[in-house]
Batch of 3 targets.
Target 1
Amino acid sequence: MSKYSDQVISEISTVINKIPDDEFTEAAKAITSAKKIFVLGLGRAGFSIKSLGMRLMHMGMESYAFGETITPDFEAGDLLIVASGSGETKELVQKAQKAKALGGNVLAMTTNEDSTLHDIADHSIVIQAPSKVVSDSDFHSEQPMASLYEQCVLVASDALVLEIMADVSTQGNDMFKRHSNLE
């Protein structure tokens, strides 16, 4: 167990440490200046990005998982955060284009800075991990498929939360006030 968990942790650390600090800072500013925040991703990347939406809600921000039945309309001044390893998933690219057409902003979390999604986005966090489509990453992962990318979306999202917490002077105890209490 420890051999494999050490491998996973080492890979995550290597990739996360390649993300420039200014990408985090710009992403944090985009999040805190948005009226509403929508998160969008498919599969395991979708689960990871929904975790960011949940934490933003815990901080008191108006955040939604795109596609849920209770998701409101997207308007000018809103932010769509899209997690797509390839940056070419048609459905995700189309949603990003629509968000821009409606006067909103897009934050991309992708492995591919040469992608359509990266080009559409106002802000990007480029995660230099192999994805299921992009196999020319500088970094080789021992993990299958796009596991490393999906894990790094979660870790990068948690790092964003910490940066935003510091920027808006929020404490973890304050966030628990918005945690589900029907447990």
Note: Helices lie at 2-16, 21-33, 43-58, 90-101, 116-120, 147-167, 172-175.
Target 2
Amino acid sequence: MGRPVNVGVVGCGFIFGQYVRSIERLPELRLVAVADLDPERAKEAVRGYPEVEVLSVAELMADPRVDVVLNLTVPAAHAEITLQAVASGKDVYSEKPLAATTADAARVLRAAAEAGVRVGCAPDTVLGTGTQTARKAIDDGLIGRPVAATAIMLTPGHEGWHPNPDFYYAPGGGPLMDMGPYYITSLVTLLGPVTTVIGAASRTRARRTIATGPRRGEEIPVAVDTHVTGVLVHASGALSTLVMGFEGAATGAPPIEVHGERGSLSVPDPNHFDGSVLLARMGEEDWETLPAAAGHVGAGRGVGLADLVTTPAGRESRAGATLAYHVLDIMECLLSSAHSRTAVTVTSTCERPQPVTFRPAPR
């Protein structure tokens, strides 16, 4: 690469700061412009970055300096903004999910293919040492043939800490659409694509109360299922049990466990990049901690964007749109199964993403 790839960000909300800190550390990327529905929020977000220009969305899309658009809008706007970027001939990396529905996500894939641009999608947490060390342990045969996995996330809901949690309870939100991408992307990375799902879901409250910020005490409507559980049947034959909920005070269960014919792995929280991977060998009582052996050390949100812009032409990046579409399809099928009370076939598929070798932290 002759120069860093110029990044234009659309959406300067809660997650923006994490991406900016990563972009500062990644030599492949350079932030040049931002846009937001609220221009004052955009100006505040880049205070201290005089080289970054605040533009309108239309201006950012038309700016010839911008090589790749980082889409950090709310889920309901993901497809619209990504399609605008694709129509402008720019590569795009989007926050998860790829779109609010698979129908919109399919439009994104078609448009990107026709325009010859690349699209990637969060989460990129699976590129860190946590999930990648577990992936290497599986690939190295430390637990034998994987047979089953569990993935569990239970919290009280985001209204307890987020000042504007409305979109978490609107279509495209909920525990499955919000947190499911982390867990399901990790499961696909570890065990491969999914062919069938069986789901169940519930919604216990019609309204939630914001607990912090200027809107404290305000009630917001709940339009999505707030507890979703199900079984994912992987093409490999492994079965994953998924539990995603905004209805629990806490859980002591490991975020992810993978069980094989010769042992079990405890995999760290897929919402984080690192964490300890534990191995229990068949016939031994104690768990052992595996040293970090794969993945990006000290990674932050944005490493998937760097992976996108450095992936050779014609190859899918590790946090690519095909994987993101498959994860979204799995989630939609889970909800469809829960409402129809029948097993649902997942018609999409993807290649198991390429592993990440051990990568020291950027200086």
Note: The mean pLDDT is 96.
Target 3
Amino acid sequence: MKKSLLCLSLLLAVSLSGCGKSKSTPPPAASATPAATSSGAASKVDAQALFKANCVSCHGVNLEGSVGPNLQKVGGKLSKDQITAILNNGKGAMPSFKGRLSDDEINSLAAWLSEKK
């Protein structure tokens, strides 16, 4: 019983550590060709690349969730401003990305996620 509890605790700790790990190499923040947003404006930041570099370990490759919640329809539940606040301040086990990502990166990621409905 103690052995299985220890293994489960260790597995949980390893899983959660992926969400807060610091990056050893900077993510590909800006794309060579600006991506167009749904409003038609050009974006300097590739939000999908940011997601892959910073969020996949907890939210999954297809936003399906694993350690973190499913984000496939997050835009139907939360506004861009609410998502921006969560990215800046963190929530629950999710760390804050303020200081890790620039304001432009956070805004682009929040806009991209808010389109997921």
Note: DSSP finds five helices and two strands in the chain.
